[in-house]
Amino acid sequence: MCLQLWSRICCCCSNINNTNGQARSKHGSKGMVYPVTRIEIWEEKVTEAKNNGKILVVNFNASWCVPCKKLEPIFRELASRYPSMIFVTIDVEELAEFSNEWNVEATPTVVFLKDGRQMDKLVGAETSELQKKTAAAADL
């Protein structure tokens, strides 16, 4: 788990990492994960989830965070397994103020929303816990 150190220091490996990398597509063959890079995209996804009675699963991460990279393929797999849910990622450095509003103090942080309200939260790259929480949210 990486603490909220937007100074580009990964607390997991204690290395200074370059965050100038280009945005990567999160669209994999295993499912659709939508990158939220602007507040307008966030609002679209929240509205889509509300209007269609879907759970919104939000992965707050950072490009330099090693645990976030560990969680990424599992997150994509879950997006494929649960098409009744909407999966998005938010880079905490791209949308730092927004991430702070959601009280993201460490990466990765995964938040589950129903009707725009937080119903569950997972801090850290506990893949088995993410799978459990996602399955439980899908049953609602």
Automatic annotation (TrEMBL):
One Pfam short name: Thioredoxin
Superkingdom classification of source: Eukaryota
Residue span(s) of domain Thioredoxin: 25-139
Species per Swiss-Prot/TrEMBL record: Brassica campestris
Protein's name in the database: Thioredoxin domain-containing protein
